[in-house]
Amino acid sequence: MKALVLVARREIAERRFVLAAAAVASLLPFLAPLVPGIPASAGPMARAVVALTLSVTFGLSGSLLVGASVVGRELAERRLGFYFSRPLPAWALWAGKLLGGLLLVLASEAVVLLPASLASGRFPGLWGSTADTVALWGVLALPLLLFPLAWVSSVALRSRSPWLAVDFVLVPVVALAFWIPTRRLLGHGFAEGLPRLVGALAALFAVALAAATFGQLVGGRTDPRRGHGVQSLVLWGTLLAAALGYEVWSRRVVDPGVEGLVTAWYSPAGTALSWVYVSGTSGGSGHVRASYLVDLERRRSVLLPPAWGPLVSRDGTRALLSAWPDGFGSGAPQLVALDLAARHPASDPEEIAPAGGVTSYDLSADGRSAAVVSGDTVQVVRLPGVGLLASVRIPSAAESGPGGTRWSYEAGFLPDGKVRLLPRRRLWKGPAPDSPPAVPPPPILELDVAARRVSETGRYDIPPVSGGLWLAADGSGERLLVRAIPFDRTVWLLDARTGRRIATFEGAPDGKPGFSGFLADGRIVLLERQGDDRQVRVFDRDGREARSVPLGLRGPSVRVGPEVAPGVLPVAVEERSGNRAGREYRLVLVDVGAGRISPVKGDLRPALGGDWPWAVGLRSPVFPGSPASRLFLDADGKPVLLDPATGAIRPLDLR
């Protein structure tokens, strides 16, 4: 230890002029307030900015100059043998030179900052927990990285050994090896954890460089070429091993598996019975987002690119989704198709259209055609290959209605291959007014793909609406449930082709319908609040009320899932509890035909559903008894499968 201190003191003493120059530079910030044009009130800030700039300048330039001369120059001038002629351990020589040089550079930074900091009482910007403070300390700590970098660079350039060619080749290779996993993390939303990631990588490089300087001095001693060889082996070996570990870790973070998600949201992925879409966060801090398509029946998951709104064809062969090729929220999203029969579906997506202007899309039952509505145009393309089958203008979508609005249309394939277009949402040319005028919706349309012609088939038989419309179609696409947005007490049952009103459902006088949707057999269910209680109302296909089932459940919110068995609905009501933080749910299974209620033990809630129907696009999936209908979340938000007959619960295992 004594030898280490002696070497460090010698390094500082030989370059003490750096501290003298820093002491002189520390007086310059006090001249900043005297510069013409700077008001007196801004004087302290000007002094702080100049002091910080000079401090960073001394740190960066000093670490490069001192680091390059601490060993490299002595090797070139053959003066390093002086140290090895003494009874001095090689490790002490290395540690003394590294410690002495770093202390000299960091001390020069502190000398420049100290007078201005004392004058201000507390140097602005260097204290606190803001991102700017972290960035400032990061810049001031750069000598810890640049000093060993200058050391190894100086030795490499002065050695004139063949290892220099290896260095030049491996610099871009290692940079690419670290960039690929970093790009993967950023593409999956790692922005919040980026400062810590940058700090960890900087620390890794600093350690690798320090290890390389140790190898150079201890292994090479006074031989420049041998020292350069040892230095390169240690440096590149360490960095390549670290890059391999970084690659493995980044892949695990962005693809933790559905069971490894910290938080997750589940939704049905079209009318395929067993496919669900899962989007959540992974990693200990939950900064990385991961999205999956999960086939619960075949116990298979497909990692998606950063995406939203996936739609799986009924036969489960193809998926359509809006994806960001450059990561979440980065660049323009694209509407892409995935071949789910491929071994790695997401590795070769087919671009259908830029998704920025896409308002709706649908897949045919066999996954061979896609309908895309964009602005006032509907297109039908053939898959794979993205061959254009039809492209037709939607006349009523482009026309301005009362109040200066346009309407967007929801597209859905019909069994005969035609595409039905249902008006759904009002698009305002400017900011939406506080009290928009009520207007009648535009016509229902059908696209004949073979003839490439759009024709009107009817209009909604409902009063004018001031906002948009909420739509849900039954499994056959023949009937619609329609509600006006903002929601009121009324739900209309309409013929999907003509818009003819079949029935009108009014909510209770002191409430309004919450959940409303179709059962697999075509019956309609409405869940509504009646006083403090909730009840399920059941209607036949023609809208006649068949039964009302009081639930005897009270709570601030409710979740309704798809049928776990024909005619059996799971209903979970949130119950507030003072014993634990978070939410607790009480789950019951409601047999809407028999009017029977069966409680389920445990804190469970449906993974699919909520206050909205389990519909994707227009059609409600035919779910009864399928794995997707039996998917629930436990108290910790983890997915489990429920057996409605026995009440048995087992974890979801896709391995």
Walk me through this protein's architecture:
By secondary structure, this protein is an alpha+beta fold. It has a domain at 2-254. The chain is 31% helix and 29% strand. The chain has a 4-stranded antiparallel β-sheet, with no helix packed on it. The chain has a 4-stranded antiparallel β-sheet with strand order 5-6-7-8, with no helix packed on it. Helix 1 (2-14) crosses helix 6 (90-120). It is elongated, with a radius of gyration of 34 Å.
Low-confidence stretches: none
Q: How far apart are the termini?
A: 55 Å
How many distinct beta strands? 32
Q: Give the structural class.
A: alpha+beta
Assembly classification: single chain
Shape: elongated
- Biggest pleated-sheet summary: 4 strands, antiparallel
The neighbouring-strand order within the major sheet is: 1-2-3-4
Content of β-strand: 25-35%
